[in-house]
UniProtKB/TrEMBL annotation:
GO terms for molecular function: nucleic acid binding. Gene3D superfamilies: Ribonuclease H-like superfamily/Ribonuclease H (3.30.420.10). PANTHER family: MARINER MOS1 TRANSPOSASE-LIKE PROTEIN (PTHR46060). Transmembrane segments: none annotated. This is Transposase. It comes from the Eukaryota.
Amino acid sequence: MGLLVKSVRQLFSSCSKFRDECLSKTQVYEWCSAFRKGREVVANLPHARRRPRTSVTDDNVSTVENLILEDRRSTVRDMAEELGISVGSNLLKNTVKPAYRSKRRDIPIRSETLNELGWETLEDPPYSPDLSPRDYYLFGPLKEALGGLQSACDSKAMLRVRMVT
């Protein structure tokens, strides 16, 4: 028995190198226990004592999708009442995929339409050399210090910012 526990510990320590992708310590012990008792298959086995799933059906999933498309502000409680299922049912976890939103550059039809209309399109710069994400912490305190003051020209605004800093 001591040799078996030691091998389970070794198995867990080798699995823990994978960090978030690894099974928990309890799961490793449960799997080792199951194989010790004679289990030979890694795949999920059917559960004879489990109650069949009644809330995650194709009809319910399509109904929830339609409800969301009709009124995106509808709540989970409203949908559960309409379907007659419990609020804790998780219908959309693995069944509904998020809509793919392509970038502006990836849509040639849009750019062709803009060219036909004679509109000039400007490319967005990949980054701003004057402003980096680590400068964002300045905006809140700077807005508070300026207190909503407005300037008619850039030079006056820069002078006020220099006075604050």
